[in-house]
Predict the 3D structure of the following.
Amino acid sequence: LTPAFQADDRQRLMEMIAKTPHLRPRDVNPQVPPDLDAIVTKATASDPRQRYPGAGELWADLLRFLKGERVSARPRLPWRRFRR
């Protein structure tokens, strides 16, 4: 397991985390399911406004993923709704 960010001091590490775009899980391993990729990406977003509002919402999405239900981190696209 390799850390996403490495630096010699804490200040530099914090700068890297704040300014560097995060790799999506599917960029590292294409076999990661798209819904799990969306959950992890939302949970680790650099911008707090793009993250889950709280741990409860993250937990609910993880449970939906495990049950095979649609997750909120990956909303259905309008054309997919129309097709159904």
Remarks:
- The mean pLDDT is 88.
- The first helix runs from residue 10 to 19.
- The CA atoms of residues 22 and 45 lie 8 Å apart.
